[in-house]
Design a protein that fits this description.
Strand order of the largest sheet: 12-13-11-10-7-9-8-3-4-14
CATH superfamily of the largest domain: P-loop containing nucleotide triphosphate hydrolases
Shape: elongated
Protein name: Interferon-induced very large GTPase 1-like
Family: Belongs to the TRAFAC class dynamin-like GTPase superfamily. Very large inducible GTPase (VLIG) family.
CATH class of the largest domain: Alpha Beta
CATH architecture of the largest domain: 3-Layer(aba) Sandwich
Strand content: 5-15%
InterPro entries: G_VLIG_dom (IPR030383), GVIN1_dom (IPR058641), P-loop_NTPase (IPR027417), URGCP (IPR057365)
GO molecular function, one term: GTP binding
Structural class: alpha/beta
Subcellular location: Cytoplasm; Nucleus
Amino acid sequence: MNNLFHRLHLEDRHHNKLRAADALQLTERSLLSNESCAEEELVQTFLQKLLMMNYRARYIHVNNANEQHHTLEDNDTPEAEFFNDIFVNKPLSNKETNQSERIHPMDVQMAVFHCADGFLKQLMVTKLSQCQFALPLLVPDPFTQQIEFPFWTFRQINKSWKMRNTNNEIISQTQPIYKAQTPMVFFFRFGSVSSSKSQLMNTLINDKHDTFFHRNCPGSSRTRVLMDGVVEITWFCPSGKNMDKFTDCVAFCNLHGDAGDHEKQLQVLTKMASVNVVFLPQLQRDDRNIINVQELYKDSKPLICILTDDDLTLTETRKSKYKIGLKDRNQSDVSKELRRAISDCLSSLKSVSTFKVEDVSNCLDIKVDEEDDVDCRRGKEAALHIMSVLRTKDLTKIKELILPCQGKLWHQWCQTNKELHRTQAEELEMERSKKRAILKRIREQQHEENMNTFIKLFISEIHLHGENKMYFLKWLGILLDEYTSRDISDLQNKYDEKWSTVVKEKENHDKSEKLTAELEKISEELQAATFGLEHIMREIGQIYESCECLKKNKKNLQINFSSLPGLAAEMMISGFPLELMDGDAAHVPLVWISAVLDQLMKKLGDQKVFVLSVLGLQSSGKSTMLNAMFGLQFAVSAGRCTRGAFMQLVKVSDEIKSQINFDYVLVVDTEGLRALELTGKSTRHHDNELATFVVGLGNLTLINIFGENPAEMQDILQIVVQAFMRMKKVRLNPSCVFVHQNVSDVIAGEKNMEGRRRLQKTLDEMTKLAAKDEVCDAECFSDVIGFDVQNDVKYFTQLWECSPPMAPPNPNYCENIRELKETIMSHAVKSHGMMLTHLKVRIKDLWEALLNERFVFSFRNCLEIAAYRKLETEYSKWSWSLRSAMMETENKLHNKIENEAIHEVEEIDLKIELKETSEEVKKSMSEFFEKDTDEDILIQWKTSFEIKIKELQENIVRETKRKLNEILQQRDLKKKIDDQRKHHENTLFEKSKELALQLKHKANDEKTLKKEFDLFWEQSVKKIITGTPPIKNIDIMRDARRLLNEIYEGRLPVDHWKEGSEHKNILFLPSYSEYVSIKRSTNRGFKEAVKESLGFGRTLSPADETQIRTFVIDVAKQTDEMIKSFNISKMGYNKSYIQQLTDYIKASVIQQEGRVKYVFKNEFFVDLVLSVYKRANMVITDQQRLFREANDPLLYLKKKREEYYSIFQKYCRGATSAAIFGEIICQKLKEPIEQSVYKKTARDIADEMRSNCESLNGNRSNLEKHILKTLAEDEDFEKYMSYIKTPRDHFKGFIRDEVSWYSTHKFSVSVLAKMKKNIKLLQQKIMEAAHESTEHVQRKRGDVGLWLKSFTQQLSDELIFSEKDLSGVNHEDVDDFKLIEDVIKKELPTIMSDISSRVSTETFPLKLDCKFRPDELLIDHFCQCCWVQCPFCGAICTNTIENHHGDHSVPFHHNNGLNGWFYKGTTNLSISICTSSVASDQYFHTYDSDDAVPWREYRRAGKDFANWSITPDLSDLPYWKWFVCRFQKDLEKYYSKTFEGCGKIPDEWRKYTKQEALESLDQHI
């Protein structure tokens, strides 16, 4: 005994049980053929075959490593060889006699049975029953010999049979087998018999299948350890045909071993049997078994004695007592006689004692597993308690009473939701608002429904009792099946009878219609009577959805509603299927499914799944195939079983996970297409919906085709091809495998080839048909999907070996299943699968697109959108890395240019500088695309983004080269200014030095020195100023007006050019109508040109207004760039700049007029010019201020006075030339140090804000979200209109405000800290440069010139400081270089401290270089993107690339009224939303055509419309609805229109609070 368990590696499993969950895992072994295996693999191989319903599980060959042919020892002469070989037994030459006896197949089965937990036992017995094997009824414990009745294992087995009644009519029966009352024939033996009892029994039941394992079966061995004392049971189920061996369902029990040794089993079964059949050898009178036989013979119960040592034929010794001999007799004859005897016994008795499996539990001294297992018992008690609520209820009314939320209310909700998505009313948003109100009202009604005791008890049980939850759920399913089975069976019989009548009366139209109505009524009753766990969970789902909608718990719900999805998730993990699509309502409960998947992720983690879906006609064997493939238990029977779609998890074992990179296979089973119950109804649309949904959901779809009927094949293929074509058009790439079931003679290869050819031809024909419906360019099926007709078409033999109900599954079918499983795994290896998070989103996307009817047009791939957003965020980081690196390079080269260290800049040099960062970015990109969880989605953009980064890099290099070349050019232009300034400074140094030498003897007389210096300074500065004209303040607006006045010579109203007069800011106008005149047309009159037209009651349409606004914004942008190029802070202001800008604007206006149908009035040009200058006024003025401070002698010399006086004093006191030179260097360094520190700090702040500032640490969409939040918090209408009308400027302003706030509020911790850090670093570099220069000069024995050259060269990357800065200072007598170094070391900290002390929140922004401000650096980064606005609503395209390829798009559109759209012939602003409108059948009107354009075909309206991709979607932002309500009056005033009539704002919009509006931004962006 122990040796057996040891050999099977089950020695520790008697207590640590084998679990069903482990057996159902997808393992490597489950993919193998497994006709043979090693001994240690027997258990797993047996289980895998059994779960696939392969009856060859009992006939597994064991590979023995020691197996060898037996060789006899041969010492005989050739003459004796023949005789000895044949007739003489000699010892074997090997040790075969010592080899272990092979394990008996039934020992494998029983060992696994003993070591299995309750659920695996039940699964095993259910599968044994499906294999038409006998089942263990009484099982002795191998260690204690306690007899157990495994009642639990029978609970899920149903048997069906047909028999004829007294009227010779066929009656169908389906019953749970433990409830079935049948006659029972009990077979047993006394002593040892020569013939096989089990083999003879098999001939009675099914002579083509070994129901009972017997001694002559393959693999049988002499030793059998675990079968003695086991009683097995099976049933003969008649088919209602004349060839049936018995006319009624009969149970057969078989006691293994000598009955004399197993008295308890003998006693129980002989008592319960209808007929006892005993096998007897020749017994002696004193044999211990004689008494038992005698008692059976005396009993009135029929007894058949089979004498194994006698050859007599069937003889009736007395009434119901028979004997038959077996010796030397034909077994077929014996079987016939025995069958006749049993039939006679059963028919002759007036009241044949019937047997029920459940009655065995009443026997004394027999342990019943259900009572012995505490969890099982408690689960049963809880289930019975709940079932007591149903006992008095009418089954056809039960769902209506017990499950009110999923009945009419849920169906109404589904219908209204479909209407919401398909609304075609004229007042679209108002109608949708009404539908939403209805949906909420239905949810309120659901919420108010009283919770039935049944549901309350169910929720309480699965929530509180985790230990016996599985047993409870199993029990409840069993009891519900038991409760409903009889009524459903009766209704099905009634339906079949009525259907037969309908077919007969088909010619009689009137009668046929009446019968069809009756048939439909029965079908509805049948549907109402179907009541299982899925309906209970559907009700809980509706309870959850109603609570979630109203955000409050349901009355009498004992737990918080948010816990309900977790309960369903636990059920899924435990192996229960979850209803994905409600088959009754044909609707997906999205809120519930999403919540369950969220909980599933919380419990399992975001696991990767391979989604396998299946499609096929009704009753084509889909569920059976899945059950066989994965050991699942989807409902199967003839007619409609699965309704809707269910999904179930199959765990992937660790051993195979590494190969296929999935954690689970998610199996999606669906209802059959072309269902018989729906015949006569419109099924095409429903089938197309279902097919599209599951094909889109699956990574692989199995297309199940049953039989070889061409019409049926064509039917399903047309639906399937259309579904795959839709997937292609929305860029989903599932794969498919065709499974052709019930094909005869599947071995014939030529026939298979012909079948494949026909299938390919049909698929191609269906593709052409579907291409017309879907408007798709496809000629053959391979144009639609990657499909290999050789490998992706599987032919299955018939499921049953012969005719049901007694037929076992065909082993070839099971082998076909295994091969299909292999094919599925080969697809899985190539597939990326999807994460559970992605699955949730995919379900939502598919269903919402289907709700909108036009799937391809409506499909919104949220997974792609989310992945693309993530990619854009990464792109933002990569681009910032490149920009940041180039900024460092630009600053370094800028310094070198100013220092005249370089005289040209080449692109190749810039690329070399950028190479290291470029490589890092490439590496980061590669890792992102290869390792991100969305790698399979992201891969489609890999090449384009690599190109984008390359182009960006090239643009950065080109732009940097342009800037640096401008600096080179300007360096030469401003050389005179700089030289003059340096000349003044150095002249003052020399003259103050001369004065100091004259006053050296008065060095201690401070008063005299100061007086003399002040006089010297005043005279020197006066002299400089006299020779240099002062730099005056400027007035841009005055210069602009004067120029415009010269152009128009007084032809404009005085208000347009008079100084101090106001003009309209053209950048923020709601309309430009007053600025244009329509061009006269030769083809039509002026009235036609300007008439109120096509939805717009003014001269210009919103599209025209948008076009002009875009032009104005573009002009403003270009003038900004021109002003930057003037570099006023360095070069100074010149009135010619105004002329250049004005000329550019004039040329742009003329060019624009050539493209459009209107001309601009003079007022437009004037106001545009003035608006541009007003916008640029502050920038130009600030830059001129910086230029004046740096170059006006009066100003910059005033700042230098104290520095000069300090040096003057030191000269007077006799300081050496080296000391003075050192101090001069420090004074000269002060300004460059300050410039460098400010630039570096600006870059550091920009970097820090990119990391730490919420609004700036992501992509452009994230920035926009924060802009919208700020707008809502400020509630400033003018700012909103700035965002809507001039978004680029608004973004820039927001970034500047963010930087200003950050610099002010984080001044101490950020700005000042960075300044001090940069000052310290720079001080260290200057000290190192001084020290290294000193050592260099000492090594080279050089002079001060060499020292200065070395010093400036080392700092040329960091500072704008060169030898020329000291060119006018006499330093020839300087020779103490160590002293210079010491002076610098001493003076530098004071200078640094002075710079640091003067940094404040006020001075910091003023001191920044206009080109190197943190806000400008961030603006460059964020604003070089697409700014095209939706021609309808004005929403900004979110693409991060300016002038990008492909359509413009935006995740959420605004209300069209925000952009000025209104309803034709009215003054009512539009409340339409683009994404809703494009799903409707409504029309809009463009300006230049009388034709109305359907919203669905909006691209026809012209270029501005054609370049936009607007996907139908109801998930608009509540934010904009809140905005319209909050600023209704402002919008009406701005556009001189009202939100009335057709544009009346729905009441639903007014319910949104500002908080909800803000939350919607976080939720959707």
